[in-house]
Amino acid sequence: MPGTDELDRSALGRTIAVINGKGGVGKTTITANVAGLLALSGWRVLVVDMDPQGNLGLDLGYVDTDADDGGAALATSLTYGGAAAPHRAVRTNLDVLIGGDALHMAQAALAAQGSRDAAKAALSLARALVPVADDYDVILIDCPPGNDALQSAAIAAARWVLIPSRGDAGSQKGLDDVARRLAAVLPYNPDVDLLGVALFDVDTAASRVRENARAMVAESLESEDVLFKSTIRHSSAVAQEIRKRRLLVHELDDAVRQEPEWWRVRRGEVAAAQSGPRSATTVAEDLHALTEEVVARLTEHETQEVAS
């Protein structure tokens, strides 16, 4: 097995870990929807579900299908080595390393291994991704909220970290946990850096939330200028509907836009279609804007690296 110095990270330059030490802050929603929008634009995308809950499968629609192995293939790669085996074409240009219950086994194995060989445990995901990474333009990792071994493996494989946050009083600990985890992984991945913090599930009037978030980020991560300008607005209806229909937000927006006007249904001119929340459009616009910012920051950093 390659050690830290022997691992060729050149193919992992666009690997992004989406992480927060706190649950319920939009990690999976942002991972799935940014991945889906990048794939729609023509990027070849791999999503890695490192969460034993496997909720990414709800957003991408493969839960309880033949494709859903409960994370067994990924757990095997993490525990015993070997190249990852993504499930192909969940969407056009979008492949997935499926997560689920089997990752509990991998977590226990990595935790035990870490007490003997911390580098080997931390680099388990990086080793699994390197053989397949050249097949993709970007890799997004959906991280569990509170699993040290799996979080460490995700960060050790990533070039960039994206942190979703609600920006509320309860978000400080989540940011502190990420900062602690980043510091612990730096010996195995000294190039990992913060891509940005995305505010998720905020009210339309978010100026105070942004200021609170800026202060928290400055305290926890020692940087004030990493907040993305885009914020993902709150909509319980959209959150419920995308899981119910197994659609990404832009797909739900497309479906809602194609529904007939209510007055035409009332007149009997057309048949009623499955209704959906009109707020899907605003949330889809927010996710489009965030995706554009992610691409812009990646491009900016890559340009700076070439220039230096």
Radius of gyration in whole Å, from Cα? 20 Å
Tally of strands: 8
Specify the helix fraction band: 40-55%
* Percentage beta strand: 5-15%
Terminal Cα separation, in Å?
Answer: 32 Å
List the uncertain runs.
Answer: none
Q: Shape from CA axes?
A: globular
**SSE class:** alpha/beta
**Largest sheet: spatial strand order:** 3-4-2-5-1-6-7-8
List SSEs in N-to-C order.
EHEHHEEHHHEHEHEHEHHHH
Average predicted local confidence, pLDDT: 89
Number of helices: 13
Major sheet: 8 strands, mixed
Pfam family, one: AAA_31
Protein name: ParA family protein
Organism: Sanguibacter hominis ATCC BAA-789
Domain AAA: 14-185
Care to describe what's here?
With 308 residues, the protein is an alpha/beta fold. The protein has 13 helices and eight strands. The chain has helices spanning 27-40, 56-60, 72-80, 102-116, 118-122, 124-133, 148-157, 171-185, 207-221, 236-245, 249-257, 262-266, 280-307; strands at residues 15-18, 45-49, 87-91, 94-97, 138-142, 160-165, 193-202, 227-233. Strands 3-4-2-5-1-6-7-8 form an eight-stranded mixed beta sheet, sandwiched between helices. β7, α9 and β8 (227-233) form a beta-alpha-beta unit. It is globular, with a radius of gyration of 20 Å. It starts with 14 loop residues before the first strand and ends with a helix. The model has no long low-confidence stretch (mean pLDDT 89).
